[in-house]
Amino acid sequence: MADGKKTDVMVSVIMITYNHEKYIREAIEGVLMQECDFEVELIISDAYS
Questions:
Q1: How far is CA 25 from CA 8, 11, 21, 28, in A?
Q2: pLDDT means per 10 residues in the chain (49 residues)?
Q3: What is the C-alpha to C-alpha distance for residues 49 and 46, in angstroms, rounded to an integer?
Q4: Res 20: pLDDT
């Protein structure tokens, strides 16, 4: 926000994975490096498919 105040907004990112051992770190960092003025919740689930 322009006035520097945090909003009451929270964004949930749901990441469903399957055999991503080689790439999971890069995927998590891609979400966490985003610059935003709201809370971010990252939920990771292994599909076990």
A1: 28, 20, 8, 5
A2: 70 92 92 92 88
A3: 8
A4: 86
